[in-house]
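User: Just a sanity check before I run the rest of the batch. Below are the structure tokens for the first item. I only need the designed sequence back.
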């Protein structure tokens, strides 16, 4: 049985350029239910976490300005979203989904997935790149604070873009190892330093990508010895992605998920998966690639 967090979709009117990518959050659960990969019982609707848990990661002044709609025009532009109460509510609900999913994965020694999440460009004191609050960072701090069984966390960030906010948040935290494998020429222009960064040249395809990942991740699991894994499974690595420079096929993206989740399953590691980015021209390409992540998880733990 899967545990799937589904936050309410952002209903506030958005500029035309934002509406298309947001559709995946509605279509993906529908697809999973229609094909039988998940049942209604697998889904839970999260709630925002207590403020004290958010402030384990985020600066209190930034959080209050975000909550009350007092970001400067420059700060709002950096996030890429027009602020609204509904947007804030959705962001903190996503945090709750990743925290609760991590708790469930830990209890079952299995997997949980968030239909949204993967907001890895959010820093402690600011948002960037469509990310306002860093859900995997908040959930990591929650585990380290509330769960004695979790002493070391590995964050595997395979979104197209470097997890700069996550890297900065955990730069001086020895209990968290951050691994980001991303396009060298993609956003952000100024990269932060993860514990391990693998920057890929334009046009990297299935075999080069999967070979490098297969050489790297098993070694990391042995060296880091994590008690918990967060996996950011962005599908903006696809060749069809209009913002990206990598060249993975949909099948290659599925094999990537099999590699990561299969290793976690064989090592008995609980894993929390967030969907991250995806900006292909056809919404069907985005939804199908994300659905593959859930199918792989269901095949391994279902």
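Assistant: Here's the designed sequence for the first item:
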């Amino acid at each position: 049985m899967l545990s799937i967090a589904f936050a309410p979709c952002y209903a506030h009117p958005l500029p035309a350029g934002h509406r298309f990518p947001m559709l995946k959050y509605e279509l993906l659960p529908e697809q999973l239910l229609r094909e039988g990969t998940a049942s209604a019982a697998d889904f839970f609707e999260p709630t925002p976490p207590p403020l004290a848990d958010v402030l384990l990661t985020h600066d209190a002044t930034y959080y209050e300005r975000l909550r009350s709609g007092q970001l400067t025009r420059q700060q709002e532009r950096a996030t890429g979203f027009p602020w609204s109460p509904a947007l804030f509510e959705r962001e903190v609900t996503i945090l709750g989904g990743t925290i609760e999913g991590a708790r469930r994965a830990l209890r079952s020694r299995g997997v949980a997935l968030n239909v949204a999440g993967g907001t890895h460009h959010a820093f402690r004191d600011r948002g960037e790149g469509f990310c306002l609050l860093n859900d995997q960072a908040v959930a990591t701090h929650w585990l380290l604070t509330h769960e004695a069984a979790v002493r070391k966390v590995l964050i595997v960030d395979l979104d197209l873009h470097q997890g700069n906010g996550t890297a900065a948040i955990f730069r001086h935290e020895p209990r968290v190892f951050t691994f980001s494998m991303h396009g060298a020429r993609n956003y952000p222009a100024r990269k932060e330093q993860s514990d391990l960064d693998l920057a890929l040249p334009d046009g990297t395809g299935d075999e080069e990508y999967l070979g490098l990942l297969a050489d790297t991740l098993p070694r990391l699991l042995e060296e880091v010895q994590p008690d918990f894994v967060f996996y950011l499974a962005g599908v903006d690595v696809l060749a069809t992605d209009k913002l990206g420079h990598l060249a993975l096929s949909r099948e290659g993206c599925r094999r990537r998920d099999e590699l990561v989740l299969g290793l976690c399953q064989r090592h008995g590691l609980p894993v929390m998966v967030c969907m991250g980015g995806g900006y292909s021209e056809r919404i069907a390409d985005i939804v199908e690639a994300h659905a593959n992540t859930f199918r792989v998880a269901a095949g391994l733990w279902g």
